[in-house]
Automatic annotation (TrEMBL):
<dbReference type="InterPro" id="IPR003836">
    <property type="entry name" value="Glucokinase"/>
</dbReference>
<dbReference type="GO" id="GO:0006096">
    <property type="term" value="P:glycolytic process"/>
</dbReference>
<keyword id="KW-0418">Kinase</keyword>
<dbReference type="GO" id="GO:0004340">
    <property type="term" value="F:glucokinase activity"/>
</dbReference>
<dbReference type="Pfam" id="PF02685">
    <property type="entry name" value="Glucokinase"/>
</dbReference>
<keyword id="KW-0808">Transferase</keyword>
<dbReference type="GO" id="GO:0005524">
    <property type="term" value="F:ATP binding"/>
</dbReference>
<protein>
    <submittedName>
        <fullName>Glucokinase</fullName>
    </submittedName>
</protein>
<dbReference type="GO" id="GO:0005536">
    <property type="term" value="F:D-glucose binding"/>
</dbReference>
<dbReference type="InterPro" id="IPR043129">
    <property type="entry name" value="ATPase_NBD"/>
</dbReference>
Length: 338
């Protein structure tokens, strides 16, 4: 019996797996448990799990051997796998959360667990790139049968017009940092920040940026509102965009444009044969991505590579729909390293 976990800054999911069969699964809000170890102990006790051989945890942050700090956690606490093993009574291995997805891609990918959104003359061999926006922007890659973690989501975002330079300055002040990465925009918090910035612009300015004619001198803040808590803002924007609100849809179109640009820049670095998009934001907003306007903005960002646009145009791009890829990936990692 194995214990596997997908550990994020906001949520965590635990499972028990026997062989390759998932037996129990529990979903937790991270802040509801005083420690990660206590959450695992609660899970084991609740399901009376016996005969645990080992545990693998996919951590949402860089893993340095036996140590890890969660990138988007509100504390700089460094987790130690040896401390986990000593307390829990079985061996514990940390891997990067997107490294776990790589293991899943190698060993468990079947067609009904992902949907193609672009199907050109795919090569199907060589490097496979995968990324996904959620609490942050995770990136990883697979080369043949090897899986590699990567922090490509922290590549610097490159503004391409005056209003985007303003947006970067807004983010630099908000985060008290000169370095503004793609993750600051292509993430749940990124959706909130994009909305906050454009609420300080007029409808005409928002439309001009998006290449839409018309628009009034009304402030965007007069057309839409956001919940007081930033934690609630991303879902508020996405839900209302999916309901058809035109202003919220424009905010999500900007988000998807930046998503496409992130994929495009990563393609230039990795030259992948295939690209897999994971993360809850994309999977939950597939219907919105089918909207003609939103889809065009995503594709505009994706192909915004000038002379190198062809490096994206001949790659297969798929959205992963399997919810438990991190858990299955951890299990595969344990099985392959027994």
């Amino acid at each position: 019996m194995y214990i596997t976990g997908d550990i994020g800054g906001t949520n965590l999911r635990l499972s028990s797996i026997n062989g390759k069969d998932m037996i129990h699964t529990e979903y937790y809000v991270t802040r509801e448990h005083p420690t990660l170890i206590s959450a695992i102990q609660d899970f084991i006790s609740k399901h009376s799990i016996k005969g645990i051989k080992s545990c693998c945890l996919a951590m949402a942050g860089p893993v340095d051997g036996k140590h890890c700090t969660l990138t988007n956690e509100n504390t700089a606490y460094k987790y130690n796998s040896e401390e986990f093993a000593s307390t829990l009574g079985f061996s514990v291995k940390f891997i990067n959360d997107f490294q776990a997805i790589g293991w899943w891609i190698i060993s468990r990918f079947v067609t009904n667990e992902a949907v193609d959104i672009i199907v050109p003359n795919a090569l199907h061999n060589g490097v496979k790139l995968y990324l996904g926006a959620g609490t942050g922007l995770g990136v990883g890659y697979v080369a043949e049968t090897s899986v590699f973690p990567c922090e490509g989501g922290h590549l610097r975002f490159g503004p391409s017009c005056p209003i985007e330079y303003e947006l970067v300055v807004f983010m630099q002040k908000k985060h008290n940092s000169q370095h503004i990465s793609y993750e600051r925009f292509v993430s749940g918090n990124g959706i909130a920040c994009i909305a906050q910035f454009f609420m300080g612009k007029t409808e005409a300015q928002l439309n001009a940026y998006l290449g839409v004619t018309g628009g009034s001198d009304k402030m965007v803040s007069e057309l839409i509102s956001l919940p007081a808590s930033e934690d609630d803002q991303p879902s508020h924007v996405a839900i209302n965009a999916n309901k058809g609100d035109e202003t919220f849809k424009k905010i999500m179109a900007i988000f998807f444009n930046f998503y496409g640009r992130a994929i495009s820049d990563l393609c230039a670095g990795f030259l992948p044969s295939e690209i897999f998009i994971a993360g809850g934001i994309m999977a939950k907003n597939m219907d919105l991505l089918k909207d003609a306007f939103v889809n065009k903005k995503f594709m505009d960002g994706l192909y915004d590579k000038g002379r190198l646009s062809h490096i994206v145009k001949n790659r297969r791009i798929s959205v992963i729909l399997q919810d438990n890829i991190g858990l299955y990936g951890c299990c595969e990692c344990l099985l392959q390293n027994e």
